[in-house]
Amino acid sequence: MLDRSEVGKRGYLNENFRLFHLKDSRAEKLDYHYHEFDKIILLLGGKVTYVVEGVTYFLKPWDVLLVQHNLIHVPIIDPNEPYERIVIWLNAGYLAQHSYGGEDLSACFDLTRERGFHLLREGKERRLEYMRLVTELEGALRDREFGHELLASTYFLQLLVAINRDAGKDRTVEVADSYRRDPKMGEILRYIAAHLEEDLSVDAIAGRFYMSRYYLMHRFKETTGYTLHQYVSQKRLLRAGEMIRSGVPVMKAAEQAGFRDYSTFLRAFQGTFHMSPREFNG
Q1: What keywords would UniProt list here (predicted)?
Q2: Element containing residue 145 per DSSP (H, E)
């Protein structure tokens, strides 16, 4: 089972969306974590590096980082500069409710996950548009006059449309100096995501990708911050949780997520989510 001190769930979202405007003069060291909701990060100031599923991003002011639910990530913050950012948590049901004509507002998160590249770095004109929408959104959220919630939703949806339009253009090559990733580790992570129900032991992965056990274990830990076993265990639990919430019977969800022993699954599930699968589905 994954050590909760290394990877854990952070935050709970009960609203349609929640915006935080944060500025820290003292850097807090965070552990690797994930959320059950999608997250948008807009860097306003400071020097911060973000690691998302083994890819390291060197952020600049007004960069946008899209972190889909259940992606394991961590910020690494330089304590010598104040760290200011806008963070928005998004409710998937709200996005689905406001998606029309086959245009899914959560598409930007799907696209970035599929590419394995989560950064948007736009030109001056688009940055000014983001700035305008975020300023209007913050103002509407602070306001208490008639229609302020409707107005805030309007600005929020405009921001999502803008982000989806920009995410539709793959600019990975254009911002090559903004990130670092190990192509082989990226290939391994994609393989794990697509084959959770199969044998993903160190020996199996090392054999499939023609590398020694030692090199795989060392490089995986160095690249992602956690061991291969820990990573696979957490991804299987998150997959099982998603299936359970979608109505799949618990035993079937455990099996399809790659757990061979049901009692092991129950212990790991309880240890990670602090509730039984039946309570989780409630």
Answers
A1: DNA-binding, Transcription, Transcription regulation
A2: none
Please state which CATH number belongs to domain 7-178.
2.60.120.280
d(CA 91, CA 37): 6
Q: What is the pLDDT of residues 30-61, one digit of tens each?
A: 788 888 899 999 999 999 999 999 899 999 99
Q: CATH 2.60.120.280 residue ranges in the chain?
A: 7-178
Output the pTM of the full model: 0.85
Number of CB atoms found within 10 A of residue 82's CB: 15
The span from the CA of 49 to the CA of 66, in Å, is 14
3-state helix, strand, coil in the chain (%, to 5): 45, 20, 35
Residues of the chain with CATH 1.10.10.60: 182-281
77 vs 48: CA distance, rounded Å: 5
Q: What is the fold, at CATH topology level, of the domain defined by 182-281? A: Arc Repressor Mutant, subunit A (1.10.10)
- Least Cα distance to 164 among 124, 110, 117, 114 occurs for 110
pLDDT in tens, 149-207: 999 999 999 999 999 999 998 777 677 788 988 889 989 999 999 999 999 999 999 99
